[in-house]
Design a protein that fits this description.
447 residues; mainly alpha; Growth Hormone, Chain: A; 83% helix; globular
Length: 447
Amino acid sequence: MLTVTGLAAFLFFNSFGSIGVALPAIQKQFGNSLAELQWVTLMGVVTISSLSFCFGRAGNIFGQRRLYKIGVAFYAAGAGLGALADSFVALLFARAVMAMGLAMALPMSTAILAASFEASRRGRALGFFAAAIAVGRMSGPTVGGFLLQAGGWRWIFWMNFLVGVAVTISVAQILRGIGARRPEPFDFAGSLALLIGYPALLIGLTFGAKIGWREPLVLTAFVIALCGLSAFLVVELRVVKPLVEVAIFRRGRMAVAQLVNALTHMLHQPLALCAPLYLQNVLGASAVQAGLLLAVLPLSTALASPLSGRLADRFDARRIAGLGAVTIVLGVALYARLGAHSTFLGASAVLALIGCGIGCFTPANQKMAFSSVGQEDYGVLAAMLSSFGTSAGTIGITLAVALMENAGGRQLWSEPTVFARAQSFAFAWLLPIGLLAIAVSFRWRRT
C-alpha cells in the first residue's frame, strides 16, 4: 500500500516539474502569450486547491479507496488527452482533468495511509510518503528535459499516461474494496460557494503580483472571492453537515498544526520563484548548474522525511515538528544573507538546510494533526493540509514579489546586485512569519 501510494505521489509531483520544462515548447507550437501559457500551470494549482475540500468530504460518503482509484485513473486519462491535444484549449482541458484526478487522489492518499497504519508506525509511513513527493519534485525537471529533447513535449504527457495506467492497475489490485463509507448529506451549497470564491482568490493573488493590484481583472477576482468565501462561511455555520466543520478547529493540536503548516509554507514557498532567478541571474549559474543546485533542497527533504517519521513514532512528534520549523526559519534567515558575491557551495548548503527543515517538519506535523481527529475526518483534514499550504504559499510568493519590487524598483530585473539586495530585503521581512510559526509551535507543546 505504501509503495503504490508513494509511486503515485512521485508521479503526481514529477509531472509539475516535467510539464513546467515543456512550457516554452508548448508556447512555440501553439503561439500563445505568456498570460495564456501560465494557465497550464495555474490550472493545476487552482483546481487542486479548490476541489480538495469537496473530495475530502466526498471520500466519507463514497469511500476513500474508491475515490483514490478514480482520481489516479482520471490523472492517467488526462495525461493521455494532453498527449493527443491538437489545440491549446484541448491541452488546458486535459490539464483540468489531470488536476481533478490529483484533487481526488492527494487528500485520499494521506488519509488512507493514516487510517491503515497504527499510531506507532504512522509517522514512518507519512515520512516515506513525503520522501516520495520530494523525489518527484526533484526529478521532474530532469525527466522532463530528457523527454523534451528526445521526442518533444508530447512525450512528457505520454510518459505520465503510461506510468499512470500502470499505477492505476497496481492501485486497483492492492487497494481492494471501496473503503469505509458513512451515509451523510453532501454540502452542495458550501461546495458551490467555495468553488466560486477560492479560485478567484488564488487568481487575484497570482495576477495581482504580475500585472498590478489595481487592474480590473484583479479587482474583479477579489470581489468575487469576497462574495464567494463570505457565502461559504455563512453556509458552513448553518448547514447540518458542513464541508469543513468549524468545530474541528477548537481542537488545539489540530488548529495549531494547520496554522504552523500555513505559516511555514508562506515562508519557504517564495524560494520556488526566487532561487532559480538568483542562481542564474546573480550568481551566473547555467541552466544545468541551477537545476543541480535547486535539486539539493528536495533531495535533503527526501532524506530527512523518513528519519523524521521514525523519530515522530518514537518520541514526541510535537518536538520533532517544532525542530523542523526552527530549521526552516534558520535556513531562510541564512538565505536572506546571500548576496551577489556568495558562492554556489554556500547557496546549496542553505537550500539543503531548508530542505532538511521541511523534511523534518512535514511528517511529524501531519502525524500530530491526524492524531487530533477521528478517522472519519481524515479525508477533510488531509484536504485542509494540502489546500491551506498551497494558498499560504501563493500568499507568500505574492508578498515576496511585492517587497522585492518595492526595494528594487525598475532595476530589479536588469541589475543582478539590485536583485540580490531586494531578495535579502524581502526574506528579512518574511522572517517574522517564521518566528510566529516557532512561537505557535512552542505554545503547542504546552497544550
